[in-house]
Amino acid sequence: MTKTIDMKDEYILQIAGTDLNYRSVVVADHTPTALQILKAGGFKDLDQKTVIQILPTGDMEERRPAENCDLASRKPNRFIIADADCLFRFILDDSHLVWPEDSISEEKLRAIGNVNDKADIFIRREVEVDEVLNKGDTLDLTALGTEVLYSKSSRWKLNVQGVKIESVDPEISVSDALRQAEFDPDQGWIIILKSASGKRQVDLDFIIDLREPGIEKLRLTPKEINNGEVIAEYRRDFKLLPIDEKHLNEMGADWETIIDGARRWFVYHAYILPSGYNVEQIDLAVEVPTNYPGGQLDMFFCYPALTLSAGNIIAQTQTIESIKGQSFQRWSRHRGHSSPWNPQKDNLITHLGLVEESLVREVG
Amino acid sequence: MKIWKKFVAWLWTFRGGYAVRYVESDELPSNLARQTLTVAREDGELWVAGMICPCGCKAKLELMLLEEAKPRWDLRVDKKGRPTLSPSVWRNQGCKAHFWLRNGKIFWCRESAASA
């Protein structure tokens, strides 16, 4: 950051050769002559040097040795100093530029023309298609003729679910990208941004940086299907053990915990039965005592009531228990004396193991 | 006669069961086969599973399998090639179908007590 300072009438300038490596020099005047600037820069052979001032407007002007150069008060004051037989003048966008050599690299042209890296520089041609200057190119100024240069932002491409869109800005919001590709952003989408670095789910407000290498596509899936995990309406009247909840969610179970009167119930929806029963699936309930896991889980309850397809009677299932007004069939299945409830080891998941065992035994 | 009955039962399992078909893409093909869970897989990574809604409404259901997506489903395929999706599939539009696909079979969820 360079700015002129008023201390003791000293002014700091930036001077560079055609390499554009600027260095600071100090002059004692806010309207120094080109000669003063050359002296301040420690140059010899003063009469062979050409001084070019870069104005705040972006134009470049040659200064004769005795000519005064007005310094801008706030912007950096830049000068290019070179040995030059002749100067090449051309226009880039609306700026009149001067260069003391017969060719200029794309990189330097970008620097003196203030063209940001989002844009490409084009050579306007009379007959042929305008030519783009690629990175590393050198422009032959002797052959430039009357053509002028202009810069235009690059077009950034993105595939939105098979529809290719272009963006002038290298950054685009997901919702704008969808709109441009004529997808209704408000329809509800699962949106995955696919790039060389991987995939991530993004929302409509996410800003995609199209300069990131390997940005490939936005992949859309209609968000019209929920899964059991995101159904918030399931009741969680009380908490189970963390290990219980972890396992249930891993199993992809639809489950609830319900306090009904003074009793606490765990209900597993759409529990799939082994074959041999009157139905394929049930709501399975387990009563959870308030002192669980100190207090043991015992028995289980089925809705609707189960019968065997084979017609045999299922022992110890005659009692009906009302849970939330639904009639659940109680299965009086208890732990044996040899394997009592162990609060350190047992939990709902181990109990569900016993439940499964009991259900399989009847049809086994 | 007994063998014939067994044969019919065996045929029946085919008729009622879902099979898995893989396509090499990150997207589902536009036409999905009936009784088939079509899985789009790219470089060994599962992207999405698709099926025709089993309720008969013929809607195309797309279920994300990709780790990074939410909501997403887990797909397991047993030795007989029968797919299981978890958790359940619940369409919040149209037919509002709510079912499980387990071992290639559709299990319908009754309306849950909580949502009633």
Blueprint of the fold:
The complex is a heterodimer of chains A (364) and B (116).
Chain A: E1 11-16, E2 23-27, H1 34-40, E3 49-54, E4 60-63, E5 78-83, E6 88-92, E7 95-99, E8 103-105, H2 106-112, E9 119-123, E10 131-133, E11 138-140, E12 149-153, E13 156-160, E14 163-167, E15 171-173, H3 174-180, E16 189-195, E17 198-202, E18 207-209, E19 217-222, E20 225-227, H4 242-251, E21 254-260, E22 263-272, E23 281-287, E24 300-303, E25 320-323, E26 326-331, H5 348-363
Chain B: H1 2-16, E1 19-24, E2 36-42, E3 45-52, E4 60-64, E5 74-77, E6 83-91, E7 98-102, E8 105-108
Parallel strand pairs in B: 1-2
Antiparallel strand pairs in B: 2-3, 3-4, 5-6, 6-7, 7-8
Overview features:
heterodimer, A: 364 residues, mainly beta, Ubiquitin-like (UB roll), 6-stranded antiparallel β-sheet, 5-stranded mixed β-sheet, B: 116 residues, 1 helix, globular, disordered C terminus
Describe this structure in words.
The complex is a heterodimer of chains A (364) and B (116). Chain A is elongated. In chain A, a hairpin with a 6-residue loop joins β1 (11-16) and β2 (23-27). Chain A has five helices and 26 strands. Chain A has 364 residues and is mainly beta. Chain A has three domains: 10-85, Ubiquitin-like (UB roll); 156-222; 242-363. Chain B is mainly beta. Helices cover 13% and strands 41% of the residues of chain B. Chain B has one helix and eight strands, in the order αββββββββ. Chain B has one helix spanning 2-16; strands at residues 19-24, 36-42, 45-52, 60-64, 74-77, 83-91, 98-102, 105-108. At the A-B interface, β16, β17, β19, β20 and β22 of A face β4 and β6 of B. β20 of chain A pairs antiparallel with β6 of chain B, so a sheet runs across the interface.
